Amino acid sequence: MKNIIIKILVSIVLISGFTQCRNTNTDKSKNTTPLTTVTISQAFQHLLYIGLYVSQEKGFFAEEGLDVKIETAGGDAQAFSALTSGNTDFAQGDPAFVAIANEQGWGGKVVVMAVNRVAVWGITFDPTIQPFSDPTGFRGHTVATYPNPNTSYVVQKQLALKAGLEVGRDTKILEVEMGTELASLQNGRASIAQTIEPNVSTAELEGGKVVFSYPEAWGDFAFTGLMVSDQTIKERPEMVQKVVNAYEKALNYIHTDLEGTLLVAKKYLPHLKDEVIRTALRRLIDSGCIPQHTQINMDSWSSLLQTRIDVGDLKQMPTINLIDNTFAQNAKQ
User: Fold this and answer.
1) How far apart are CA 244 and CA 162, in angstroms?
2) Which residues contact 86 (CB under 8 A, 6 or more apart)?
3) pLDDT, tens digit, 9 for 90 and up, residues 12-65
4) Which residues form the SsuA/THI5-like domain (predicted)?
5) In this structure, are residues 286 and 278 in contact, taking their beta carbons and an 8 Å threshold?
6) Helix or strand or coil: residue 37?
7) What does the alpha-carbon distance between residue 107 and residue 103 come to, in Å, rounded to a whole number?
């Protein structure tokens, strides 16, 4: 009887050891599973792209089994060119390029809405100009914008026309290169300048003030999106879903953890003061520029396309749907 008990105990020990060994091997197998490499070409490295950076730095891409490489192209056209040439899996920038390329025979979709408003504000250093919400307030002022056909210029012109102002007579538009808009105020060439964050918050620290909110005046607008080719969607839908899943998590994080988001922003924009980044992030979130979800708003998309038709970039509204919300809808579940 004693020998039987000993044999049973030995068997239990052996089985237990085998189970532990098997579990250990399984854990090792999980830990050594290779990540899927994905490349995303961004137009610029900019605070507006905070959703992309949070996806990366907070580990949301890694959670989805992705090893994401973020490359900076140096412009919207360059980022989109990398996509159409097959040199990147995704492009983040002006989503209008999907519609423009569609007219030329290229197939692709917008799968994430990264910035959902016209993320510019009217700044002045003139103490006599008071904040206004009605575009008629531009009467008598010269407004500095980025060069036509930039969205900045188009929006300014359209707002003036809708307010019954004749551009060139009732109000003027001064086209300046990006980065020189605030200088146009200081040298007296313009009385109000459109600019983006973090320039807005920087200008406020230097004595400037916001007198007009374009996000509030214009409403939903597809300002920045994540784009992918139809071929990639067809051949690698699981990978596309994982990227959108991570982005959805990032947008939720941004809207619930400002301090954590601030740390990510500081890593990508170390030259900015903490106060500037904090104020800029708060403004982008509160204004609705950074959306809560990845799903593309149809009104935002239509607003973007109409502006592109107005300036001649597009011949007409696309006859096919160029946004794919199925991934965003799945990510929200």
Assistant:
1) 37
2) 229
3) 333 344 344 444 444 444 456 789 999 999 999 999 999 999 999 999 999 999
4) 50-256
5) no
6) strand
7) 9
Q: What's the pTM?
A: 0.87
Run of H or E residues at 210: strand 209-213
Q: How far is CA 210 from the centre of its chain?
A: 23
Which domains are delineated in the chain?
36-118+220-332 (3.40.190.10), 121-218 (3.40.190.10)
Residues of the chain with pLDDT under 70: 1-32
CB 255 within 8 A of CB 72: no
HSE-up (13 A, CA, CB side) for residue 189: 13
Cα 243 from Cα 63, distance rounded (Å) = 10
* pLDDT of the residue at 10: 39
Distance, in Å, from the CA atom of 279 to the CA atom of 268, rounded to the nearest integer, reads 16
Q: Whole-angstrom Cα distance, residue 111 to residue 327?
A: 7
- Sign of the dihedral through C-alpha 217, 220, 222, 223: positive
Six-digit token string for 91: 């492009």
